[in-house]
Amino acid sequence: MIVKTYTDVPAEKVAMPGAESVTIRWLLGKDSPAPNFYLRLFEVQPGGHSPYHTHPSEHEIFILEGRGQINAKGSRHAVAAGSFALVEPNEEHQFENSGDTVLKFLCLVPKE
Amino acid sequence: MIVKTYTDVPAEKVAMPGAESVTIRWLLGKDSPAPNFYLRLFEVQPGGHSPYHTHPSEHEIFILEGRGQINAKGSRHAVAAGSFALVEPNEEHQFENSGDTVLKFLCLVPKE
């Protein structure tokens, strides 16, 4: 059993083109014994956003703190603490901080 | 894309023997298009706990609110908002509210 606090895991800058003021913490990733899916925590500063992009694996999202929007093809979805989302495989998406505090959310992905 | 708030999903009493004052919300379950793993939110009232049990699939846990402990074989792990855990396959475990407010946590499991 692994039990930790998310701040035990360092926040790494997301350097992907199109990312602005975003960090990721790999809470349970490929260096852990997690057998099927990975738990990551993102922090997006005010004015920041993830890349608008797509990929074959899904995301399961839970918003912990802050306010933002998920931008999809032809739609925008407002989110705040307590919102959750499923981004289906190959769906275009972007997470954007639309508030004035840090937008903090969990984003889970299947093991590759 | 699915975007909702967790309170949109009804809380169901966990009726399993050994569970006391626990509810579950299946945020993304088998009735959703989630392809690989499921997102559930548990609420444990003060004095309540989940069953002490084991099963072949893992749990990935993130504590949202409250204080509690994860009881395992020969050990107890204190948790609070911001704690996360991996309960590995076949590990004995129990979630217990040791505080005086609701213990709220996410618990993800692989698709069966």
* Integer average pLDDT of chain A: 97
Largest sheet of chain A: 6 strands, antiparallel
Cα-atom radius of gyration of chain A: 13 Å
**Total DSSP helices of chain A:** 0
Tell me the quaternary state: homodimer
Helix/strand-derived category of chain A reads mainly beta
Helix content of chain A: under 10%
Proportion of residues in β-strands of chain A = over 45%
Global shape of chain A = globular
The ordered H/E elements of chain A are EEEEEEEEEE
- Give unreliable regions of chain A as ranges: none
Biggest interface reads:
A-B, 38 and 38 residues
First CA to last CA of chain A: what distance? 22 Å
Count of distinct strands of chain A: 10
Strand order of the largest sheet of chain A: 2-3-4-10-5-8
Keywords:
homodimer; 112 residues; mainly beta; six-stranded antiparallel β-sheet; three-stranded antiparallel β-sheet
Task: Give me the secondary-structure topology.
2 copies of one chain form a homodimer.
Chain A: E1 2-5, E2 12-13, E3 20-28, E4 37-49, E5 59-65, E6 67-72, E7 75-80, E8 83-87, E9 93-97, E10 103-110
Antiparallel strand pairs in A: 2-3, 3-4, 4-10, 5-8, 5-10, 6-7, 6-9
